[in-house]
């Protein structure tokens, strides 16, 4: 798994970026703009999956774990959802297509280049009315959610950013009183590349009830899993 990631993420990507004079993320967006149906979020999600499984690997949640994400979102039926780590907007589009009328998703992205790509992806998918993209570090944005973005509590949180931020950001959500009894957290990549600190924290905490969903790394046959942690108050 590590060798495959090094090949895809570092060697192959850098060579292709140099030859084509554009980033992989821009290539994914271009492929969507040329091949997906505007205003159709399912078409956008399927087109990204097609590109990343056939052409260049990318760190979206992917189609297999995407089904776990879908099921969790449908069960939580959130009015207000938070995503940490937007990347190209794949999971923001995937989540938003399942939201009920009047519900909203706040998605946080630290990298300005990824944020710019995601903004175009979200608009092309036609879900911009449901999704608000917040640019900056999660540790700065989370404390602003109540006052600046009028969030009372979060019904659903998808953690898919830097793995070493999973635990401190979960603690921050608690400290900022953003979780209510029944709030659902879903964390990606808990085996590969892994988030052992997060697993240790939520599984040992009396405030969370955890469920593990074994799966595979996006677009690869590498063992991975997602962890659902329901806040008990």
Task: State the gist of this model.
It contains eleven helices and seven strands. By secondary structure, it is an alpha/beta fold.
Q: What is the CATH topology assignment?
A: Rossmann fold
Envelope shape: globular
- Strand percentage: 15-25%
* Total of domains: 1
Give the termini separation: 37 Å
Secondary-structure element order, N to C: HHHHEHEHEHHEHEHHEE
Please state the structural category. Answer: alpha/beta
Report the sheet with the most strands, covering strand number, pairing sense and barrel closure.
7 strands, mixed
- State the name of the first-level CATH class: Alpha Beta
CATH architecture tag: 3-Layer(aba) Sandwich
Give the name of the CATH superfamily. Vaccinia Virus protein VP39
Radius of gyration: 17 Å
Q: How are the strands of the largest sheet arranged? A: 3-2-1-4-5-7-6
Task: Say how many strands there are.
Answer: 7
């Amino acid at each position: 798994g590590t060798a495959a990631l090094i090949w895809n993420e570092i060697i192959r990507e850098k060579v292709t970026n140099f030859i084509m004079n554009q980033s992989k993320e821009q290539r994914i967006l271009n492929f969507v703009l040329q091949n997906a149906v505007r205003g159709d979020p399912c078409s956008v999600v399927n087109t990204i999956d097609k590109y990343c499984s056939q052409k260049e690997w990318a760190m979206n949640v992917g189609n297999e774990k995407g089904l776990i994400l879908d099921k969790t979102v449908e069960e939580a039926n959130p009015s207000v959802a938070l995503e940490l780590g937007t990347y190209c907007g794949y999971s923001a589009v995937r989540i938003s297509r399942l939201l009920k009328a009047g519900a909203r998703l706040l998605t946080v992205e630290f990298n300005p280049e990824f944020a710019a790509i995601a903004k175009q992806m979200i608009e092309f998918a036609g879900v911009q009315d449901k999704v608000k993209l917040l640019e900056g570090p999660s540790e700065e944005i989370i404390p602003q959610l109540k006052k600046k973005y009028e969030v009372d509590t979060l019904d659903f949180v998808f953690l898919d950013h830097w793995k070493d931020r999973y635990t401190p950001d979960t603690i921050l959500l608690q400290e900022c009183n953003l979780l209510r009894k029944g709030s659902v957290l879903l964390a990606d990549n808990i085996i590969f590349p892994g988030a052992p600190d997060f697993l240790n924290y939520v599984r040992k905490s009396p405030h969370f009830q955890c469920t593990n969903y074994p799966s595979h790394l996006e677009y690869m046959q590498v063992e991975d899993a997602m962890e659902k942690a329901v806040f008990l108050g």
